[in-house]
Every structure is written in structure tokens, then in C-alpha cells.
Amino acid sequence: MSRTLDTNASTPGLVWQRVVRLHGPDRSCGPGTSEDDVPRPTASADRQSVQLCCRAPEKEMKRLQGNGVGYQRRGLLRAGLGAAFGSAFSLACTPEPVSFKSVDITGATYASNFRLRDQLGNVRTLADFKGKIVIVFFGFTHCPDVCPTSMLTLTEVQRLLRPQGDLMQVLFITVDPERDTLPLLKAYMANFDPGFVALRPDPDELKNVAGEFKVYYQKVGGKTPDSYSMDHSAGKYIFDTAGRVRLFSPYGAEAAAIAQDIKTLLRT
């Protein structure tokens, strides 16, 4: 059963903080519980059950009519058949519960849009990618471990989705526009997949988009002015093909778990 995160938080970084609390201080943010397997009757089994219900022996019906109770029994039989058909119809029309390994944030009112330039200088919005599963990740090119690890995980997710890999779009939003120029972002994306899109906000845009996605970021000084680092939220937002935010995948989630969630979104 998937875990549901409170979508009413309004403080930047609160989603990340709650996810960390959910998984514990050891940052074991791996996959959650597995999907429930809900058995469903096959079409042939349904037909067989209906046929068995409808087989009222003709001689038995005549005997009931001869005893003067035919109409009453027929009424009971019809009521029984109606109940049987109603139960079968209810079973057939009840949707299977959807379960995810990531944190389910369906219905969240944040992380709804952006308007940023990509590594080629083109202005992009979330609507540009409708029809695809979109994964949004915030990071920076000078990141020593978390960012490249996460990006490699996403390349593996795309591989696991083949032949549906083209239905997944990765968007990398830099939290370090000061150093991450468009040419540098283009080269960085090429290290993972040329189809991945990098987005570079200016400082004011970064503040707005980070607030919209409830992402934490903070500059951490180094030994020299240019050797600083960036603390930032390391989770990933996953959008369905209609452009609605659906899942939050914490840092450390396995590629197989993310790929399974994407397959579930593509089926529903």
C-alpha cells in the first residue's frame, strides 16, 4: 500500500523534511511495500458462471408450475439471478486499487508549473511535455555525489522502461545558476542522456520555482569564492502524462522501483 504525504504544507523544503522523517534518520529512502495483487476473474470464467446461473432445468420449472407455486418460485429465481448478476457486475466494474512504491502526493496543489530556459536557450513549461511521464530533479553540475548518482539512476530507469523509454522525460533544474551556464548544462546532460532537459532559472526565478516545488537549497561557502557547494533537496517529483504531479521519489530509491511506478502510471 502506498504512503500518502500531506499536500497542505506551504513551507519550502517541508516535503523533503517530512519524507526524511517518514523514512528515518538513516536515510533509508528505498522502495516501500510491494503492490497488492488483486485477483480478477477472467472473461471466460465470468461467462461460465453466468451460464451456470441461467441453467434452470425445464422439467423442474414445469413441476413447480404444476404445484401452483411457479410464479412465486420464478419471482424468487429472478430475484436471485438479479442479485447474482448485480454482484458480478459490481465485481467487474470495481477498479483495482493503485499502489506505488514512491510517496503518493496525488492531488497536491504545488509543483504545478514553471517557465524556464533549457540548455539550448528555449523557454520551456511543464505543458510542453504532456503525453510523457515527467521526472523533475533539482541539482547542480558541481555536485560530487548525490546529483550524478541520481541522474545515473534515471538513465537506468529509462533503460528498464524500454520500449516505452521515450515516454519518460527527465528535467534537471539547477540550483546553482551562477556557475551552471547553458553550455555547461548541455555538456552535463550529454553525460547521461542527450534527451534529458536541463533548465536554468535566474536567481529570482530559482527562488520562485523552488518555492513552487517546496525545494530547499542553500549555498555553502568553500575555501575560495568559487569552491562553494550547494545543499539542496534530493528527491524527484513524478508527473503523469496529463501533467499532474503524482509521486515523490526520495533520494536512494532503486531504479526498478521508479520504473515500476512509471509503468503503473502509464496503465492508469
Report on the structure:
- A hairpin with an 8-residue loop joins β7 and β8.
- α2 runs antiparallel to α4, α3 packs across α4 (70-93) and α5 (146-160) packs across α8 (255-267).
- The chain is an alpha+beta fold and 268 residues long.
- It is globular and about 55 Å long.
- The strands form two sheets. The protein has an eight-stranded mixed β-sheet with strand order 1-10-9-4-5-6-2-3, with helices on one face.
- Helices cover 38% and strands 16% of the residues.
- The longest helix is centred in the N-terminal third of the chain and has 24 residues, at 70-93.
- The protein folds into two domains: 43-93; 99-267, Glutaredoxin, CATH 3.40.30.
Question: What would the keywords be for this entry?
Answer:
single chain, 268 residues, alpha+beta, Glutaredoxin, eight-stranded mixed sheet, 38% helix, disordered N terminus
